[in-house]
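Example 3.2
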Amino acid sequence: MSKTDFDIKGKEKVKDEIKEPPKYRVLLHNDDYTTMDFVVKILEEVFHKSPSEATAIMLHVHNRGVGECGVYPAEIAETKVDIVHARARAAGFPLLATMERI
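Structure, written as tokens:
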């Protein structure tokens, strides 16, 4: 038997461990055009950050050039990046979000 064995009572034992899917960090990048208020709004609405968390992340992005918004499985990270880009373009901002495998 390849992936399972049976114990004395006939119950199946799983040999292979289930692996967690890889996680991705979603990052926001600073630019000279996107307003701080818009970045805070994105962090609150898309990443569900509190106003104080959103402000702290926005200031980190502003001062350091890039900041982490959260860690997610690949599909969720991709969706959040797409939402940020769509909302930013609709508002006329060039805000860049990326994802990076951990």
